[in-house]
Design brief:
Layout (H helix, E strand, L loop, with lengths): L4 H4 L2 H12 L5 H17 L1 H9 L3 H20 L6 H25 L1 H4 L4 H29 L4 H22 L9 H4 L5 H9 L2 H13 L5 H12 L4 H4 L2 H23 L1 H17 L7 H28 L7 H27 L6 H9 L6
């Protein structure tokens, strides 16, 4: 989670740097396609890796994604200035697929080891993405904007850290083989029929549709908060840390509400936190100062972090048995990719070259209400 969702949560640093320096001839909307495709790959690949995980192919998934992520991260470091297609292919598609391969299985593996405290365990796993989203932006901003390293050297240093952590994860993560193979033993029989059965269940269908609506706007602050802070005239040395503040607080949001969900129920926690996340996003309309950015970063980080972690706990709670948890999370994640790939570019178009922040904030904020 530190290297997949954590790196995706750092895209706001790339968005700002690309727009100011490395892809200065491209619009905000065009640049945001890199981040949106990466995030959508993070979700859509779960349609494949979720069932593969349930079928006992976890180790194959981990080894393959480690190789792919390290290779594509390294290729990003060789991308030339204003070569949009090179960055899009390596960061948007290549790294996105590598991250997506491990996203759903990282949550599903918790169900093999935890039952009573499953929500809390999933929250701890999700917090890895928040910690990564805290450290990776600081690292990238320090290398690119403070030390002034070339783009290639900065990304190669980042590649070394991500590759090493993926290797460590390969040794630390392990399934309980007795719990794997639910897809093959499904009473319905076959992956396709099993997934069709999921979509005929009202609770699962409503959660999935809610996630699709929500993800149109959920990642707006992650991608645009640093740029918003800069365009509002706030000091650059502060703006560089706005995303890290958001992601750092998000770690607590991914743990504490999930701990309570084991007692009060994942659904009962998920609904109010979704509404709160939408309200906080809309409050960005009033942000014009350092105090405003910090307040939004803290509150949005906490409540959006809870949303991300609780959504997986909600999906897992709908499973009939452990062997279909990976497929349920993967299928819902795949459908969510529709909005996660479209949301940031739409926000970029609404933002425009004049940086009118009202339209994208309204568009993103209202999208967080339907699932509640």
């Amino acid at each position: 989670m530190f290297t997949n969702l954590g790196h995706a949560n750092a895209f706001g640093v790339y968005e700002s740097y690309y727009e100011r320096v490395y892809l200065s001839h491209e619009s905000s909307s065009t640049i945001s396609w890199i981040g949106s495709v990466q995030i959508s790959c993070l979700f859509v690949f779960g349609l494949i890796t979720g069932p593969l995980f349930d079928a006992g192919k976890f180790r194959h998934i981990m080894i393959g994604s480690t190789i792919l992520l390290t290779f594509c991260n390294l290729m990003l470091s060789f991308a030339k200035p204003d070569a949009f297609y090179q960055i899009f292919l390596s960061q948007g598609i290549g790294m996105g697929l590598a991250m997506g391969a491990t996203y759903s299985p990282s949550y599903a593996i918790c169900s093999h080891h935890f039952r009573r405290k499953r929500g809390f365990a999933m929250g701890l796993v999700a917090s890895g993405g928040a910690v990564g989203g805290l450290i990776q932006p600081i690292m990238l901003n320090h290398l690119l904007n403070e030390r002034g390293l070339s783009f290639g050297n900065a990304i190669r240093i980042n590649t070394a850290m991500n590759g090493f952590l993926f290797v460590v994860a390969n040794f630390l993560m392990k399934t309980k083989h007795a719990a794997v193979g639910g897809v093959k033993k499904s009473p319905v029989g076959g992956r396709g029929r099993m997934m069709m059965r999921f979509m005929t269940q009202p609770a699962y269908l409503s959660v999935t549709l809610g996630l699709i609506f929500n993800l149109f706007g959920l990642f707006f602050p992650v991608i645009y908060l640093q740029l918003l802070s800069t365009t509002k005239g706030l000091p650059e040395n502060f703006s560089f840390y706005s995303i890290s503040i958001l992601n750092g607080v998000s770690a607590f949001g991914r743990i504490l509400p999930n701990l309570l969900s084991d007692r009060f129920g994942a659904f009962n926690m998920f609904i109010p936190f979704t509404f709160a996340t939408g309200l906080i996003l809309l409050s960005i309309l009033a942000v014009n100062s350092i105090a405003g950015v910090v307040s939004v970063a803290i509150f949005y980080g906490f409540f959006s972090g809870a949303y991300i972690a609780l959504s997986s706990a909600v999906l897992a709670s709908l499973a009939d048995h452990d062997g279909e948890i990976g497929a349920r999370i993967g299928l819902a994640s795949a459908f969510s990719a529709i909005s996660s790939v479209a949301g940031p570019p739409i926000n970029g178009v609404l933002l425009g070259s004049s940086f009118n922040w009202t339209p994208p904030i309204l568009f993103s904020g209202v999208r967080l209400f339907p699932s509640g």
